[in-house]
Amino acid sequence: MGAVARWLSGLLVVFILLFAAYTWLVLSWSYSVGERAGYVQKLSRKGWVCKTWEGELALVTMPGTVAEKFFFSVRNEAIAEQINHSIGRRVSLDYEEHVGVPSSCFGETGHFITGVKVIEDPAPLSPAPVQPPPPQTSPAPAKQQ
Predict the structure, then answer these.
(1) DSSP for residue 86
(2) What's the start-to-end Cα distance of the chain, in Å?
(3) What confidence tens digit (pLDDT) does each residue in 81-118 have?
(4) Residues in contact with 102: Cβ distance below 8 Å, sequence separation at least 6, in sequence order
(5) How many CB atoms lie within 10 A of CB 116?
(6) CA–CA dist 38, 91 (Å, integer)
(7) What CATH fold (topology level) applies to the domain 31-118?
């Protein structure tokens, strides 16, 4: 039984090392890198055991259209603080997408935020619409007698 126990413990160590190597590879290699702009609607620290920052970005293309939501995770406390200070303002979030993350302890989504920029609202591209002047009424002609 001693040889079997040693063999099983060796197999367990190899499995743990392979799992750790896989997790490190998935978290250090990004599937895609990008940037999304919109308004952060929510950022909260969630989780029973592993607390992670999870958020929603409303992607608004045109005023009056239905916003698409971009769900993201934040692993860096400083970036989470920057996002918290920019809630309600238009921001651009830099992200890395990681596919195959083995646990929600690293984040509930595969999109991890790596940078935050506040976008100042630009001046309008066209001047304000010109209001037509009020109609002028001409004086009523005088009655001739």
Answers:
(1) T
(2) 133
(3) 999 999 888 999 999 998 877 777 778 898 999 999 99
(4) 19, 22, 23, 26
(5) 19
(6) 6
(7) OB fold (Dihydrolipoamide Acetyltransferase, E2P) (2.40.50)
